[in-house]
Specification:
This protein has one domain (about 10-360). The chain is about 20% helix and about 25% strand. It is built from 13 helices and 22 strands. It has helices at about 10-15, 70-75, 85-100, 110-115, 175-180, 185-195, 210, 225-230, 230-240, 245-250, 275-285, 315-320, 335-345, and strands at about 55-65, 105, 130-135, 135-145, 150-155, 160-165, 200, 220-225, 290-300, 325-330, 345-350, 355-360, 360-365, 375-380, 385-390, 390-395, 405-410, 420-425, 430, 435-445, 465-470, 475. Strand 3 (about 130-135) and strand 4 form a beta hairpin. Helix 3 (about 85-100) packs parallel to helix 12 (about 315-320).
Length: about 475
């Protein structure tokens, strides 16, 4: 298998822009938009998801491209090869992070041109931003938002392997850096870890568990937005209709007053990346401890059409609004704690377009023992159990239809196939932890509360079952 990113996405989108004519016959009259609660283009502070046992949620994006990636900003991140980066595109990235109230952002730029730059320059420090230093060098920047909040920004790379939260460049000359960042073997992993990185694997729809086992990654992408959109990847690796995502999303370019809220375009093509979920379960069955994340892969280079909210289809803000990776830490302002939580699997993926979850709690309990958090280990024993508090949608207006939320606990036995050991609508779910293996939680939703915001499209997109949350496993020995 040859790992590759889709290269023709922008051209493919441009070729079918004629579909964005606003002539949709989705059926159903549009409700009076003035009677609806206002659509939020931002996200609530992550603290509103709720703390548990002294652990606070911290929202973040993993897999993000800045103008230091050659293909960002519609493939023109610089006016010329040696010129400064596009500050307007960078401003869009910064505004997206601030508007969606990200607590952290793991940049993952391609080696062209990330490997050519001085490491300190990659933190995108501007204005009132500050570098976070450790052992004499920068390990993060604290990006200053207009409202006084901050986003912790870290440096990483994305090629076949995705080192995140580097403390420094890999060793060697610039040419040797390029070779290292493009590596896809245990030696590359060792070089990344020597440089302080946590090691992730992107685009797992294109990888097999057998390929990934020797790399021993800390985490993998179990959902990948680019894979859901790119026609080549959809067709070859996901078995989906080649043109389905872009043609559906472009319908949301409808500029009519009774058209859909543009942010809801994701509903038209969101589907589970089943090959990635299968690879995750195979790694877990093989005894690997692997966290799962959602990859935004944001470049602002795919859908350069303006929607009626005044933003392009793939604006940084819009993509960040769709889903996030939530870690549980004692101090969300501490980048070391965030990286430790990622490496240890104390995180979950939340598709916040469907709603910000409040009240989610996944823990293992055993008599006389403290609760064990996501990523932790508990001994198999009679009476030990996995306990799930099923979340609700934060601040759901009672005037909107109610979503249907269903949780399930999956057990992945050693060298076996995953099986559902508990399923239900909540408010709580439980399963015994009496056998070794990995246990993980998925939560799905029929987002009927979003139907009124689809306007003249009708409510069909809000009547499908979609992923809402993927929680990383708890392990039983």
């Amino acid at each position: 298998m040859t790992w590759r990113k889709g290269r023709a996405l922008w051209a493919f989108a441009a070729a079918i822009l004629g579909l964005a004519c606003g002539d949709n016959d989705g059926g159903g009259g549009a409700p009076d938009a003035t009677a609806l609660p206002a659509w939020r283009m931002d996200l609530a502070p992550s603290s509103e998801m709720g703390a548990r046992r002294g652990l606070e949620p911290a929202r973040g994006i993993i897999h993000l491209h800045s103008p230091y990636s050659h293909d960002a900003c519609d493939g023109q991140p610089r006016a010329d090869e040696t010129g400064p980066i596009d500050e307007d595109c960078l401003a869009d990235l910064r505004a997206g992070l601030c508007t969606t109230r990200m607590d952290y952002a793991a940049l993952t730029d391609h080696d062209a041109t990330m490997a050519d730059e001085e490491f300190a320059d990659l933190f995108l420090v501007r204005g009132d931003d500050q570098l976070v230093m450790s052992e004499g060098g920068p390990i993060a920047s604290r990006l200053a938002c207009d409202d006084g909040s901050h986003v912790l920004l870290t440096v990483g790379g994305e090629n076949p392997i995705m080192p995140i939260m580097l403390d420094r460049h890999v060793s060697g000359t610039i040419e040797e850096r390029h070779a290292a960042y493009n590596g896809d073997d245990p030696a590359a992993v060792a070089a990344f870890r020597d440089a302080g990185a946590t090691v992730w694997i992107p685009h797992t729809e294109q990888r097999t568990a057998a390929e990934l086992e020797p790399l021993e990654p800390d985490g993998i992408e179990v959902y990948q937005l680019h894979a859901n959109i790119d026609p080549d990847i959809r067709e070859e690796y996901l078995g989906l209709d080649r043109a389905g995502a872009i043609s559906a999303a472009i319908e949301f370019a409808d500029l009519a007053d009774d058209g859909p809220v543009p942010d809801l375009a994701l509903l038209s093509f969101l589907s589970e990346n089943q090959p990635s979920l299968d690879t995750w379960d195979q790694l877990l069955a093989g005894g690997r401890r692997v966290a799962g994340s959602g990859g935004s892969d944001a470049h602002q280079n795919a859908l350069p059409i303006m929607l009626r909210d005044g933003e392009r289809g793939d604006s940084y803000r819009r993509v960040m609004r769709w889903f996030s990776n939530v870690v549980l830490v004692r101090d969300p302002s501490d980048i070391g704690q965030i990286e430790e939580a990622l490496r240890g699997g104390r995180l979950f993926v939340a598709f916040e377009l469907l709603g910000t979850p409040v009240g989610l709690d996944v823990r293992a309990e055993a008599a006389g023992e403290d609760p064990v958090e996501l990523g932790g280990t508990v001994a198999a024993a009679a009476g030990a159990s996995l306990e799930v508090a099923v979340p609700e949608v934060l601040d759901l207006d009672p005037s909107l239809p109610s979503p249907t939320i269903t949780a399930r606990i999956l057990y992945i036995p050693p060298d076996g196939e995953p099986e559902v050991v508990a399923e239900g609508a909540g408010p709580a779910l439980s399963a015994p932890l009496d056998a070794p293996g990995a246990y993980r939680v998925e939560i799905h939703m029929v987002p009927r509360h979003l139907g009124p915001y689809l306007g003249s499209f009708g409510t069909d997109y809000a009547e499908q079952t979609l992923p809402w949350i993927y929680a990383s496993p708890i392990y039983v020995e």
